[in-house]
Write a structure and sequence with these properties.
alpha/beta, 4-stranded parallel β-sheet, binds iron/sulfur cluster, 10 strands, Alpha-Beta Plaits
Length: 313
């Protein structure tokens, strides 16, 4: 361990309880090590997991999130949401060793002594762990959106620690946070209409028509669980499951969900529609002569028919 190591601890404190608790410790002249820097937030619910990851990436040796006791939150449940995020991050970072450097505490405005105790305990824990192994790693670029920034920061952490092989990790019920998930397809029901692909606002779903087959795929990493795909699917063939898969997220894994045969256009010979779509159309009594003709050829046919009607008038 580094000689004379003085931990650098970032403490996110909520305005109404923990920050007031720190104030109370101060006016009561309680002695504390000068190892921590407070970042005051209106509520611990404001502490985005990205703030914590960024503190680690920038070389913090430890991070504390301190808020009101359960039931006392000024904004009803901000502290409970923060707790869930901390549990999520602790699980996510378990294989990096950083989860021990992160803790959530509850401190009320009148608990100056509890604030003092928290700082002593946590400083001692970080002293034993030593300086963060992430000190001096290159700070990653900010992404186009929060998801990409999360990806960049996590990758910087894993690479900074020299972790080549990322172990699989999925959150438990208690660790799960909203906004991450994955569409799950029922290949027996999907007819390959493409409505899910066309309506997904995040570009999660992809359709590929190759070698006479329509393939439906999706990226796990960018689904925000908006459930639009579920709503627009005419066959009830898609369900969105909440969850997070660290391995799939960091490796930007593409899941192959459905593969369906395509039908060729009777006139131009190009593949243009999935076979189950044609079967569905037959059920709806669409004229058979229109089913195996692609939209462009159909337009031409209609055009030619109109011209011949015009000429014979
Ligand atoms: S839930 Fe929303 S983001 Fe996720 S795949 Fe469906 S449409 Fe796309
Ligand atoms: S899952 Fe539903 S919306 Fe998506 S291609 Fe299949 S049938 Fe169409």
């Amino acid at each position: 361990m580094e000689k004379d190591f003085e931990p650098r601890i970032i403490a996110f404190c909520c305005n109404w309880c923990a920050y007031a608790g720190a104030d109370m410790a101060g006016v009561s002249r309680l002695q504390m090590p000068s190892t921590f820097r407070i970042i005051r937030v209106m509520c611990t619910g404001r502490v985005d997991p990205l703030f914590i990851l960024h503190a680690f990436v920038k070389g913090a040796d430890g991070v504390i999130v301190a808020g009101c006791h359960p039931g006392d939150c000024h904004y009803i449940s901000g502290n409970l949401k923060a707790k869930q995020r901390i549990e999520f991050l602790k699980g996510l970072l378990e294989q990096t060793g950083l989860s021990e450097r992160l803790e959530m505490y509850y401190v009320s405005a009148g608990e100056g002594n509890k604030f003092q105790q928290m700082i002593h305990e946590f400083t001692e824990r970080i002293r034993k762990l030593g300086p963060s192994p992430l000190r001096n790693i290159p700070v990653p670029e900010k992404g186009k959106n929060k998801r990409e920034t999360l990806y960049n920061e996590l990758l910087a952490i894993f690479r900074g620690l020299g972790i080549e092989e990322i172990k699989p990790w999925k959150p438990t019920e208690e660790q799960r946070i909203p906004g991450f998930g994955t569409p799950v397809y029922d290949p027996e029901k999907c007819v390959g209409c493409g409505a899910c692909y066309m309506n997904c606002p995040e570009g999660v779903i992809m359709i590929e028509d190759v070698d006479g087959k329509r393939k439906i795929k999706h990226y796990h990493w960018s689904c925000v669980t908006c459930r639009t795909c579920e709503e627009v699917c005419p066959e009830d063939a898609i369900k969105v499951e909440e969850g997070f898969d660290l391995e799939a997220f960091l490796n930007k894994v593409v899941h192959e969900d459905v593969e369906l045969p395509l039908i060729k256009c009777r006139i131009c010979g190009r593949f243009f529609v999935s076979a189950p779509m044609v079967e569905k159309a037959k059920e709806k009594e669409v004229p058979l002569e229109l089913l195996d003709v692609c939209p462009e050829c159909r337009q031409k046919l209609v055009g030619e028919e109109l011209v011949s009607i015009w000429r014979n008038m």
